[in-house]
Amino acid sequence: GIRYLVRSRGLGDVYKRQDQPDMGTLVKAKDWFNTQKGIDINILDLEKERENRKAQIEKVQDQKNELIANPPVKSLRNHTDWYSFVAAIPEIRGNLKVQKQSNLDSIQHCQLQMKLGVFAEEITSGKPCPLCGSEHHPDILVVENVEEQKKALEEEKKILETQVQLLDQTEKTISNLELNFQNILKEIELNTEKISGKNKEKDAHQMLFVWNTNYKDEAFLEQEFIRANKSGELIKQSQKQVEQAELELEKLKKDQKKFKKG
Length: 262
Fold this sequence. Notes:
Layout: H1 2-10, H2 12-16, H3 23-69, H4 82-122, H5 143-206, H6 218-261
């Protein structure tokens, strides 16, 4: 009877309180919140990454606009939108090819004329031509005019070659911009899919909350933790009191036995 009274005075008041929060339930609810926060952080990170990708897309678009506004090749200046700008490249390359061939033909013709000029220098009036044998030379070739023409053609050749090089560089720039643009778009698409997946994961996680609806208020949950911890401390104190009382009771029994024997 004495032992029962000791225990009832120690732990009874704590055990009888039925409104005490269950620590196991609180821990599970807290874990749910931690998982929820992890998902939210992932979503925020993915959304931030997507915004960065969009900024990269805008940067590439600015580079495209700059190329259109200041094309290295003069023939591209009449094209004000990206698609017509890109579409004009093959035609311009074809025109340059034709011009280069025409220039080459003209240079070769000049070279031939210059060789003929060597013969022209040996032609004198009244003497037969070394090529045709005629003794009449009404229109002898003037080599100086051919040399000037060849010089002009050589300058034109350099200009055409520079135009081809600039066109090659422009086409390479276009290719790099397009590749970069498409890669960023794919990354944005993949990023959007990840965000969608995380939102679905979040929705599914919401369904896992099966405890007291008040626990969805994290501040309330924290207060319940504090209350549960206080209850735990009270139980520990009560246990110590009971253990101390039991020791005292045992000592009292021993003293009673000694008194009876005495």
